[in-house]
Design a protein that fits this description.
- The chain starts with a strand and ends in a 7-residue tail after the last helix.
- It has about 450 residues and is α/β, with parallel strands linked by helices.
- It has helices at about 25-35, 90-100, 110-120, 125-135, 140-150, 155-175, 190-205, 210-215, 230-240, 280-295, 315-320, 340-345, 365-375, 390-415, 420-435, 440-450; strands spanning about 5-10, 15-25, 35, 50-55, 60-70, 80-85, 105, 220-225, 255-265, 265-270, 300-305, 325-330, 355.
- It folds into three domains: about 5-110, Probable tRNA modification gtpase trme, domain 1 (Gyrase A, domain 2, 2-Layer Sandwich), CATH 3.30.1360; about 130-210 and about 390-450, tRNA modification GTPase MnmE domain 2 (Four Helix Bundle (Hemerythrin (Met), subunit A), Up-down Bundle); about 215-375, Rossmann fold (3-Layer(aba) Sandwich), CATH 3.40.50.300.
- It binds guanosine-5'-triphosphate and magnesium ion (MG).
Length: about 450
Amino acid sequence: MSDTIAAISTAIGESGIGIVRMSGKNALNIARGKFVSIKGDNFKIENRKLSYGHIVDNDHIIDEVLISFMKEPYTYTRENMVEIYCHGGIIPVKKILELLLNSGARLAEAGEFTKRAFLNGRLDLSQAEAVIDMIKSKTDKSFEVSLNQLEGSLSNKINEIRDLLLSMIAHIEVSIDYPEEDIEEITYEDLEKDSNIVKEKIKALLSTADRGKILRDGLNTVILGKPNVGKSSLLNAILRENRAIVTDIPGTTRDIIEEYVNIDGIPLKVVDTAGIRDTDNLVEKIGVDKAKSIVEDADLIIAIFDVSTELSDEDIEIIDLIKDKKTIILLNKTDLQSLYDKDYFKKYIKNMHIISTSITNGIGLDILEDSIRDMFYSGEFNIKSDAIVTNLRHKNQLEKALKNIESVLNDLKAQVPLDCLEVDLKNCWENLGEISGDSVGEDILDRIFSEFCIGK
Ligand SMILES: Nc1nc2c(ncn2[C@@H]2O[C@H](COP(=O)(O)OP(=O)(O)OP(=O)(O)O)[C@@H](O)[C@H]2O)c(=O)[nH]1
Ligand SMILES: [Mg+2]
């Protein structure tokens, strides 16, 4: 970490300005060697001031720039930082970067600025991970959650639990090490009470992981129905492109088709499935079984029924599959002669959104999008942007921590000796420490930061 790193921090391509930045002990010296102020020496590079001038290679002008210097420790990396604002486009940024590299800087690795911020104590690990989530956010909502995480919403919760664990561990150690002292001994009841608090707090965080998954991967929306009702037509209509094959032959779709769309900031993963029916065709049968099994993992189901045909056994089977799921029902092909209507259908299913549609004529699709939006924002999927666990690594650590605290609770019931309990308590404390980065290995750090872009 003693060397000075440099990288292009803006996206490569045509743009108004481009930014090249450096971090490290020598950043200022390197910049001074290559910057010439246009207004003369009075306008040298100074802490937290913008200077206007040229970047030069010997006497040759590379570009006209603004340059800023931020003195450690109050910077992103907690090191000296220099930023050079040059013209956008590929050439100026590359030339300036090359010059800095030839003058003693080293090309930064992916995420190395943020890694330094973490190693220098400016951010904890979950905050550093929030930075990458922000950069990769595809929707307002996931950006908002990442921003909260960067502000410390998750870190605060984790630290609260770790503090409690630490005080339990300290009490146990005192009781073991200084039994003769007149210190109030910790009782099994005290420990049980605190362990239960720890357990509930971990569980509360874990319960947000599903919402986090929705924000990260999109609302898992599965289109279900018997063959030929218009599932693939709906997928194409939502995507506004001809993604899936549509024919009037029942059994057209054999496999699962997944696509991502964004409806008013709501990320959706839309899954088209094979029409559900009894079939002897091996390929189709596998598709039907797949369709049935993904119902389990769906956040939302759009079940389509074709009102131009009688409600069949397959339809009834589908109604049975979706009974306890969040579902929107489409009664499709209303442009044809309808054999039944909403009121008739309500006999089979209660408390669900039912929408009449004609997908081929584009009728009812706006109501469908409205319903999805209403369900999402009215909190049916429970997306609140408090501390939400969006990161699989965090979820795994929380699960490990939960196991450990549960084993502490079991041991407390069995009244095992205090020093035996301490091991699981410490493990729990360390599991959570891996989220904030207090106890985390080099290999995990490398893996996390390698996901970043260069220059961040
Ligand atoms: N009249 C009418 N036809 C429709 C409507 N929606 C879809 N269709 C037609 O119904 C047929 C089947 O549509 P698909 O979208 O392939 O149906 P599917 O549910 O994906 O069928 P499988 O993949 O076989 O399960 C096609 O000929 C569509 O043009 C509609 O609202 N009205
Ligand atoms: Mg289809």
